[in-house]
């Protein structure tokens, strides 16, 4: 594999800007060398790129997607600089196929998944599947899901899911109150706690779906590591913020999905960030208290799925970052940390999310300084996964 040197470039290492005129050398799929001052003469490399006026970032990580179509979605994500996606519910056979594919295809984003979630009879996401798919097809799909009935089944579920390829464990704490109106069955607190305990025993991170504040509290009390969405039914109460802090839990807000609920597709970045529904869901209390000060280490995720109005692989990630800065009081550096090192740390991926020697050469080259203007993340000049260039040529 060729070596690549990018020199005279700003370096954001996933935590902060470490150089305004540095160099980074990619070799054998890894970051081989980082120089904080570009030397003269330049180190030898097969490909040499002058990065003047540009910034190198770690590859972006989308902490919440549903990659049901697979290959085209992962290709599109990588084109937008998203080098890793974390899938939050998928069929085991599909997960197996996708993992085999990305192992050999560096032109696709890396793929990790929860496989099946810890579902119960009649519980989420059954109602939404029945409402959106052909009834017979949906019924057949749901038949193959786990139907956990007691805490004693949690260990077997986690072990089976790991054998099927799960990288993290998804829980469903959804009563339907925030979306459906009609109640649906929810797992008992004892069952949820047992699933979390079993997952932690095997070293897996747990993430829960919950769309109401009440259900979010229940998930936190079960000990989950994080929430896959921000609840949308009411402003946060102090007890909820305290629960997040007590359990050191994270939140993946998926703000883009709030805009998608309008049904307006293909909106510009500005239209997404200023839409009235987004304003409604992100009142001042949430912006200043919940999404910024209370969250210690917040991953970035979009809940993107093909066919879900208002979301698209890759581009929605940049919209999410814009909302963090424009609506939640994040600085651009806060948002970039959320998009890279924070997600890698929270999901136990120490080989990525930062610029450091010996880590995976998953990087993004953009024109401008995204630590000052978050919109610069879309000024993509090059994307590398495992040291292989997907796109290159300065704009």
Explained architecture:
With about 400 residues, the protein is α/β, with parallel strands linked by helices. It has 2 domains: about 5-55 and about 355-390, Urease, subunit C, domain 1; about 60-345, TIM Barrel (Alpha-Beta Barrel), CATH 3.20.20. It contains 15 helices and 16 strands. It has helices at about 70-80, 90-105, 125-130, 135-145, 155-165, 190-200, 215-220, 240-245, 255-260, 270-275, 275-280, 285-295, 315-325, 330-340, 340-345, and strands spanning about 5-10, 15-25, 30-35, 45-50, 55-60, 60-65, 80-85, 110-115, 170, 205-210, 225, 250, 305, 365, 380-385, 390. The strands form 3 sheets. Strands 1, 2, 3, 4, 5, 14, 15 and 16 form an 8-stranded mixed beta sheet that branches. The two termini are about 25 Å apart.
Q: What's the structural blueprint in terms of helices and strands?
A:
Blueprint: E1 4-12, E2 17-27, E3 30-35, E4 47-50, E5 54-58, E6 60-66, H1 71-79, E7 82-87, H2 92-104, E8 110-113, H3 126-132, H4 135-143, H5 154-163, E9 169-172, H6 189-201, E10 206-209, H7 213-221, E11 226-227, H8 238-247, E12 250-251, H9 255-260, H10 269-274, H11 276-281, H12 284-294, E13 304-305, H13 315-327, H14 332-339, H15 341-346, E14 363-367, E15 380-385, E16 388-391
Parallel strand pairs: 1-4, 1-5, 6-7, 6-13, 7-8, 9-10, 10-11, 11-12
Antiparallel strand pairs: 1-2, 2-3, 5-14, 14-15, 15-16
């Amino acid at each position: 594999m060729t070596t690549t040197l990018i020199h005279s470039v700003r370096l954001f290492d996933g935590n902060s800007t470490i150089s305004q005129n540095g160099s980074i050398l990619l070799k054998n799929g890894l970051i081989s060398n980082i120089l904080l001052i570009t030397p003269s003469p330049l180190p030898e490399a097969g490909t040499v790129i002058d990065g003047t006026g540009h910034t190198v970032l770690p590859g972006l990580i989308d902490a919440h997607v549903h990659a049901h179509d697979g290959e085209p979605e992962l290709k599109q994500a990588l084109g937008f600089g998203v080098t890793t996606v974390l899938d939050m519910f998928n069929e085991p056979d599909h997960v197996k196929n996708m993992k085999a594919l990305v192992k050999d295809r560096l032109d696709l984003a890396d793929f990790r998944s929860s496989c099946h979630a810890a579902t119960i009879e009649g519980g989420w996401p059954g109602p939404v599947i029945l409402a959106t798919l052909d009834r017979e097809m949906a019924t057949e799909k749901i038949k193959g899901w786990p139907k956990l009935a007691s805490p004693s089944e949690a260990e077997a579920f986690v072990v089976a899911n790991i054998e099927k390829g799960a990288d993290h464990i998804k829980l469903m704490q959804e009563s339907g109150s925030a979306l459906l109106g009609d109640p649906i069955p929810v797992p008992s607190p004892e069952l949820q706690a047992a699933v979390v305990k079993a997952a932690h025993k095997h070293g897996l991170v747990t993430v829960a779906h919950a769309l109401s504040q009440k259900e979010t509290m229940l998930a936190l009390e079960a000990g989950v590591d994080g929430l896959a969405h921000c609840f949308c039914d009411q402003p946060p109460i102090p007890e909820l913020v305290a629960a997040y802090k007590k359990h050191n839990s994270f939140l993946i807000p998926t703000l883009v999905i709030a805009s998608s609920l309008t049904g307006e597709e293909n909106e510009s970045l500005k239209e997404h960030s200023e839409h009235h529904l987004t304003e409604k869901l992100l009142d001042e209390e949430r912006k200043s208290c919940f999404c910024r000060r209370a969250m210690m280490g917040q991953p970035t995720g979009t809940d993107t799925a093909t066919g879900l109005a208002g979301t698209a692989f890759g581009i929605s990630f940049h919209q999410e970052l814009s909302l963090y800065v424009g609506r939640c009081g994040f600085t651009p550096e806060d948002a970039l940390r959320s998009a890279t090192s924070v997600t890698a740390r929270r999901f136990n991926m120490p080989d990525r999310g930062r610029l450091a020697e010996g880590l995976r050469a998953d990087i993004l080259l953009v024109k401008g300084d995204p630590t000052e203007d978050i919109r610069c993340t879309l000024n993509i000049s090059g994307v590398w996964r495992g040291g292989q260039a997907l796109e290159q040529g300065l704009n």
